Amino acid sequence: MTRGALLLVDDDRQVLHSMADWLRDQGFDLDTASGCAEAIAATDEKPYDVVLADIRLGDGDGFRVLGHCRQKHPDTQVIMITGYGSVDSAVEAIRAGAFDFLTKPLIDEELEIAIDRAFNQRRMVEENTQLKAQLDMRFGMENIVGNDHRMRRIYDMVDSVADTKATVLITGESGTGKSLVARAIHRRSGRRDKPFVEVACGALPETLLESELFGHTAGAFTGATGEKMGKFMLANGGTIFLDEVATASPGMQVKLLRILQDFEFEQVGGTKTFSVDTRVILATNEDLGRAVAEGRFRQDLFYRVNVINIELPPLRERLSDIPLLAEHFLKRVCEESGKPARQFNEQAMAALQRFAWPGNVRELQNVIERAVLLGRGATLGLEDLPPQFGVEGGVVVAPVGERSLKDALEAPERQIILDVLEMNNWNRHATAESLGINRTTLYKKMKRLGLDEPRHAKSR
């Protein structure tokens, strides 16, 4: 087994042959070329991991080989070699994209170390490419499942707006997948290799949110012992996703309006103005038009954020997608947990399609994960679903239509939150993360549903 494919380029045939023999003895798959034209042709015919090119060649110089590799074969690492080394030539080679710069006479150990480092860099590039492909699969359009006509329209909108800088507002109930759509827009844009930064606006009070978004200087407030870079700066060149934007205070809305207009801001406690090139995607589960009418949201900010609106339908309005989503989540949970592949029987699938789904797709995902982890049979049935789906202590539960709407919505929500609280030993921070909501929202729901303390939950 060879250590990798190398191309050695030198117009001194004695040096070429002696180096080639030594490199082959080290286990490398080695080819040779005595000039620029021959080297360029060789790289076009065969993929090489590393090219070792002398700078001075009879029909040109090694920089031509380097430039060709950078343009046509960017994964190939190029090491430049010269007998006339200088600091200036080394700097020029590195700036032109060379991985390393060596001077003759070459020391065997030094050359081997340089080649090994180049191979490691090549492997890192390949691993990064694979990781990016996995991110595309996890956060790209392939992970947004649905064949409903409204979902197909959303796919078209994502494709249309992804590669623009237009501000996008994603609306829909909690759990419909707003964050997933935001990530899909980023992954399908020209900014995919730059940062995607997500901020839950509702999770922080105004003073902390301003520092989180724009950063602060040392001494800006009590506890600010050093300078902090804000999320807008971290997302420079990439995308920032502002979730729960409707919760922003009037003062914060003014600051958001400015940055959306000029893409300029100052840090908290600072006077220097920073400029950023950041794509902004926002999301809310509130009706911003109503918030404007009620005076809770600035009208000028609403017009600024509502350039392109992607509205996600609730799951109860796309019941035909439930079998697709269930199959998708079943496959993923089984793979991630190491469980054997499973499927729902007809009764369980019918129950899933009858349910009102107040928690939308996120709730469906949680229900399926629970069924896979707790179910014991090869086929999942009603007994593997939470009680609100049809069986509770051996008694058939009344369908949604025979109960009040409030009861139908609150019972499953309370059970899901209780299950996750118990799973996290009543750690509210961990529970909020597991449910995909901020802590403030979790506290409000717990109070409304009577889940203030463990003893209250168990007594109900």
The helix content, as a percent range, equals 40-55%
Which spans of ≥5 residues are poorly predicted at pLDDT below 50? 391-403, 455-460
What is the radius of gyration? 29 Å
Rounded to the nearest angstrom, the distance between the terminal CA atoms is: 67 Å
CATH architecture annotation name of the largest domain: 3-Layer(aba) Sandwich
Number of helices: 19
Q: How would a textbook summarize the main sheet?
A: 5 strands, parallel
Q: What is the CATH domain class of the largest domain? A: Alpha Beta
Question: Strand-residue fraction?
Answer: 15-25%
Q: What topology does this entry show?
A:
Layout: E1 5-9, H1 13-25, E2 29-33, H2 36-45, E3 50-54, E4 56-57, E5 60-61, H3 62-72, E6 77-82, H4 87-95, E7 100-103, H5 108-139, H6 149-161, E8 168-171, H7 178-187, E9 196-200, H8 206-214, E10 215-216, E11 228-229, H9 231-234, E12 239-243, H10 250-262, E13 264-266, E14 273-275, E15 279-284, H11 288-293, H12 299-305, E16 308-311, H13 322-337, E17 343-344, H14 346-354, H15 360-374, E18 379-380, E19 391-392, E20 395-396, H16 405-423, H17 428-435, H18 439-448, H19 454-459
Parallel strand pairs: 1-2, 1-3, 3-6, 6-7, 8-15, 8-16, 9-12, 12-15, 17-18
Antiparallel strand pairs: 4-5, 10-11, 13-14, 19-20
Helix pairs in contact: 2-3, 10-12, 13-15, 16-17, 17-18
Short description:
This protein is an alpha/beta fold and 460 residues long. It has helices spanning 13-25, 36-45, 62-72, 87-95, 108-139, 149-161, 178-187, 206-214, 231-234, 250-262, 288-293, 299-305, 322-337, 346-354, 360-374, 405-423, 428-435, 439-448, 454-459, and strands at residues 5-9, 29-33, 50-54, 56-57, 60-61, 77-82, 100-103, 168-171, 196-200, 215-216, 228-229, 239-243, 264-266, 273-275, 279-284, 308-311, 343-344, 379-380, 391-392, 395-396. The protein is globular.
